[in-house]
Design brief:
mainly alpha, 429 residues
Length: 429
C-alpha cells in the first residue's frame, strides 16, 4: 500500500502546471502501455493544450504508440489537433494515414471543405510513391494495403467533394480479404460520407457474420432514419446471434422497445462477452416499461458465473441507478475477481456520493494500482464543495505527486483537471 505524507496544496495555477507535467512524464515513460494510456487520457481532455502535448511528444519507434497518438488526435475537434495530423499525412503506416483522413473529415468545419479536400486528394495521389515500412507489413501485403487506403481516401474525399469519382466499393470489395472488408465498414461508419448507406448495403448480406455485425455497428453510428430502418430489416432477416445483438444495440436510441425485446431474448447464450455487452446496452434503457423488464434480469446476473457477466451487470445497475440494488452492489465488493470489485467501487461512488468518501480514501491507497485509479475516479465524482476542497483535492494532489505507478499519477492529474474545469471532460458519463 503506498504511503506518503500530506502536502500543503499550492495555488490552482500551480496544480494545473503539475497536471500537465505529469502527462508529459507519462508520455516519456518506458512502458508503452503507460504511453498509450496517457495519450488516451489526453484525448478525453481534447483541448488545444492536449493536442499540442501529443504533437510535441517523442513517440519513439513503436508502431502502437504512434497509431494511438494519431487515432487520438483524429477523435479531437481542435485546430491544434488538425495541424498535428498534417505531420502524419505521409506516414509509412497505412493505419496512421487512414486516421489522418478520418480526423480531417471530422474537423472540416474548422478549415472548410476546400482545404481538407486538397490535402486528402494529395494524399490519394501520392499513395503509390510513399515508401512503406516493411516492419509494419510484409511486402506481399503492401499492394493490397495501398489499394485499401486509396479506397478509404476516396470515401473521405467524397465527404467534402461530391464531384470526386465514386470508388465503386461493392465491385472493388466483392472478393477482398475479411480484414479489408471489416476495416472498410468501420471507416464508413466513422466518416459518415453522403453515400454511406449505399456503400454499406451490400455488406448487410456479406458471407461473414463478423462483417455483418460490424455493418450493424456502422449503421448505428450513422443514426439516420434510413439507417435505423436498415437495422430493423437486419433484425427481421438475420439469424446469427452476433449480428442480431449488434443490430439491436445500434437500434436502441430509435426503437428501444424493439431493441430491448431482442436483447432480452439474446441473453440466452453461453458467450460471456455477448452477455456482458447485452447487459451494458440494457442499462442504457430509458423507458419505465423497459426498465421494469430489465431489472430482474440484471439483478440475477450480478451473481452470475461469468466474471465479465458480473462486470456487465454491475455496470448496468450503475446506469439504471435503482437504489434498491445497492445491497447487491455492496456485496460485489467481496467478489474474488478484481474487475468486479473495481466496477462496484465506481458504481457505489456514483450512487452513494459523499457517504463513500472515507472508503474511497482508503481504496486510493490499495495495493492494486487499478483499484487506486478507480478510487480516484470515484473521488472525482463527489460534488460537495467543502468535501472537494478539504478532502478530494489533497488526496488527488498527493497521489499525483507520489504514487509509485505512473498510470495512477496520470489518472490523478486527469481527475484534478476535470474538477478544476467543472468536470467538462466527463459530462454525459
Amino acid at each position: 500500500m503506498p504511503q506518503y505524507g500530506e502536502l500543503k496544496l499550492p495555488p490552482r495555477h500551480i496544480i494545473i502546471k503539475y497536471c500537465w507535467e505529469t502527462f508529459e512524464l507519462g508520455l516519456k515513460d518506458k512502458n508503452d502501455f503507460v504511453k498509450t494510456s496517457t495519450l488516451t487520457t489526453l484525448g478525453r481532455i481534447g483541448s488545444a493544450s492536449a493536442a499540442e502535448t501529443i504533437a510535441s511528444a517523442d513517440l519513439g519507434v513503436k508502431p502502437q504508440v504512434t497509431r494511438t497518438a494519431v487515432a487520438t488526435l483524429a477523435q479531437m475537434h481542435d485546430s491544434a489537433a488538425f495541424q498535428a495530423l498534417l505531420r502524419f499525412r505521409g506516414h509509412s503506416d497505412f493505419f496512421v494515414r487512414e486516421n489522418v483522413a478520418m480526423g480531417m473529415v471530422r474537423m472540416r468545419d474548422l478549415y472548410g471543405d476546400t482545404l481538407v479536400a486538397r490535402v486528402l486528394k494529395r494524399m490519394h495521389l501520392y499513395v503509390d510513391s510513399i515508401e512503406s515500412d516493411t516492419m509494419f507489413y510484409e511486402k506481399s501485403e503492401i499492394q493490397q494495403e495501398r489499394r485499401e487506403i486509396k479506397t478509404k481516401l476516396a470515401i473521405a474525399i467524397s465527404s467534402v467533394d461530391p464531384r470526386f469519382p465514386d470508388p465503386q466499393i461493392a465491385l472493388a470489395y466483392r472478393d477482398a480479404p475479411l480484414a479489408a472488408r471489416v476495416a472498410l465498414v468501420n471507416f464508413i461508419g466513422a466518416v459518415k460520407p453522403p453515400n454511406a448507406l449505399t456503400w454499406l448495403s451490400p455488406f448487410m448480406m456479406d458471407s461473414s457474420t463478423y462483417v455483418r455485425s460490424k455493418t450493424a455497428e456502422a449503421l448505428g453510428k450513422i443514426a439516420s432514419p434510413q439507417a435505423y430502418d436498415m437495422l430493423r430489416g437486419m433484425l427481421r432477416t438475420q439469424r446469427r446471434e452476433e449480428v442480431v445483438v449488434n443490430a439491436a444495440i445500434a437500434l436502441m436510441p430509435a426503437d428501444e422497445v424493439r431493441a430491448v425485446e431482442v436483447l432480452i431474448q439474446a441473453m440466452d447464450t453461453y458467450d460471456e462477452d455477448t452477455q456482458s455487452n447485452i447487459l451494458l446496452a440494457l442499462g442504457e434503457a430509458k423507458l419505465p416499461e423497459s426498465r421494469a423488464k430489465i431489472l430482474p434480469l440484471v439483478k440475477s446476473a450480478v451473481t452470475g458465473k461469468g466474471d465479465w457477466v458480473r462486470v456487465g451487470a454491475i455496470g448496468a445497475l450503475g446506469l439504471i441507478k435503482d437504489t434498491t440494488t445497492l445491497p447487491l452492489i455492496e456485496a460485489a465488493l467481496e467478489d474474488p475477481v478484481d474487475e468486479v470489485r473495481e466496477i462496484a467501487v465506481g458504481v457505489l461512488a456514483q450512487m452513494k456520493g459523499e457517504t463513500m468518501v472515507d472508503r474511497l480514501k482508503a481504496w486510493a491507497k490499495d495495493d492494486q494500482y487499478s483499484m487506486r485509479s478507480v478510487a480516484l475516479a470515484g473521488l472525482g465524482s463527489l460534488r460537495d464543495p467543502v468535501m472537494v476542497e478539504k478532502t478530494v483535492y489533497p488526496v488527488l494532489y498527493n497521489t499525483m505527486k507520489f504514487d509509485p505507478e505512473m498510470m495512477v499519477r496520470v489518472r490523478a492529474a486527469f481527475t484534478l483537471l476535470n474538477i478544476i474545469n467543472d468536470r467538462k471532460y466527463t459530462k454525459g458519463i
